[in-house]
Structures
1.
Amino acid sequence: MKLIALLLVLFSAEFLSAQVVEECKKVETSFKDYDIAIPADETNLRDSVFTIVTSFPVYVGCLNAPNQNDCSAKEVIKFIASNTVYPEVARENEIQGTVYVNYKVLRDGHVTDVKVLRGVNPIIDDEAVRVVRMLKYERGGLLQDKLVITEMTLPVRFALK
C-alpha cells in the first residue's frame, strides 16, 4: 500500500513537472524577442493595467527629449528630491529607510492608485505617498504604439546625514 502511494506521488510529481515545463515553454515563446501580446479586444486594452510596456510614461518636459526614458527618470528623481519634506518627528527619532511606492499612470498622464508596497514607518510612508501623488506625466505608457495604463513602482529613500 505504501509502495502504491509512493508511486502515485512520484507519478503526480512527474505529471506536474511536465505541466510546469510546458507552461514555461509557452511563457518563453510568448516573450521571445519581447513580442508582447495585446488583447484582441480594444476594450480589454483600455481597461488593462500593464507593468511591461514598449515605452514608459513620459514625465512633464520630456516629450521632445532625445531619450524620453532617461529624461523622465532624471526629472522624477529631481522632483521627488526637491518636494520631499523629511518629517520632523522622523528626523528626531532617526527614522530612515526606503519606502517602495506603487502607482498607476493613466493614458492621459495622471497618477492614481498610489499605495505603499513596502514601508518603513507610517510617518515617512505618508510623505512618500504625498510626493508621488504630485507627479505629472505628459502621457501614459505605450504598448506597441497604443496608450495604456502603466503600473510603476518607485523607491523613495529617506536618509539622515
2.
Amino acid sequence: MNKIEKITNQSGRTYIEDNTLILEYIDGDYKKIPISSIKIVAEYTTENGPVLDDWFMVFYHGKNEYSEISMYAENIKEMISILSSKLDTELDSNLVSCTHFESHILWPIKLKGEKLWVIKNAKSKTFFEKFKNLFGLKKKELVLTKKVQVLLGF
C-alpha cells in the first residue's frame, strides 16, 4: 500500500509495510510504529455509535505512548491477520457488539482478556465541575489497570 493513495474511508486506513505498522488518518496525519516496539495490543469501545466510530484498536508502543485506529478503517482485517502472524497469536476481537465503554487486551498472551483501562471519576477542580457533580455529570478519566502499569514500567 502507498501513502500517496488518497484515503476515502472516514475511519482511516491501516497496513503493515517492512515490519512497520502504518496508521493513516483522514486528516492526512499518520503514525509509523515498528512492530518490535509494540508492548500491548488492545481493543476498546465507546458509547458514540452508531453515528461516530465506537470501536478501536490501540497499540501501546512506549511507556506512556499509544496510537489507535478505528476498527472500521480500510484494510483493518488484513492488517490484523498479518499482525497476528508476526506476534504469533490470534488477535481475536470480542467487542464488536458492545455499546458501552469497555476495553480488552488482545496481546501479550499473559494479559489476554484483561481490561486495558478502567473508568474513574476525575477530581473536580473548579466550582463549576463540583456544581455539575450535583447533577450526575461527573467528569470521567481512563486509567491503566495495575497489571498494565506494571507491564509498561510505571
